[in-house]
Request: fold
Amino acid sequence: MDSLHAIGFYVSATLSIGGALLVAFVPGRFLRGLALAVTGLGIAGIALSLSAGIAALSVLVCYAAMALLVAGPRYRVVEPQLASTWRQLGALGAAGLFALLAYAAWRGDFVHATFNGGAFGTAATGRFLFAHDALATEAVAGLVLVCLAGAAAAWRTRERGR
Amino acid sequence: MPGRSGGRLADPGARTVTAGLVAVLLVASALVAVGAVTAAWRRDLTAAIAAVPLMFGGAGVAFAGAARFSAAGGEPIFGQAAMVLLAIAALAVVALGVGIAGREGRR
Reply:
């Protein structure tokens, strides 16, 4: 990984973790949705710096949709009855999980390897979709076509009934 | 002769900025932990559901990083595919949660 990708990685990591902390602590659904979008932007940047461009695009679209859902007008408050002791124990457990994962990553011994997948990952994705799993890709494309045709037919039927 | 950068001589002892698997796994574990804290800490169930994408995103970052830096010789696309799958799963969970809360909850 060259310096430019590494700087992009660290900037994106800061964005994603900062956005995640905002999701945790900020009040209000609009700000929470905005923080979720910032987190998605950071995760997409991390994916891009890891030469996973297609995944970065997908993550960006998915997190934008999630941000719209969380900040949208359908948001309702649901408060189940749960003792605060259990919530505090859960938070302590999450902190312990982070300590365990960070220790494992820090002390782990990893083998270094060269990466030949390209800067954006399109060649590997193309090989994967159109050579390795061509039949599955065509099946998904057929399913999408049937869904679109069905949705158009249903819409026309409903409009005719009005 | 040392290389020039921006009209100045580059410092021969300068270190290049780089990021490895350890940095990727640290970021991934931080995202998972922040998501777990949010899910446990938030009193509002819909706000707790917003923590699911954080945990799934952390797992996706770990998958993509492991595939990027892997020395096993496997398909590098596997980590990307897992990351996309996790993002779509997180979107489905959030849509389901917000939809159920829209029926059950109050404004």
Remarks:
- Residues 134-161 of chain A form the longest helix (28 residues).
- Residues 51 and 118 of chain A are 7 Å apart (CA to CA).
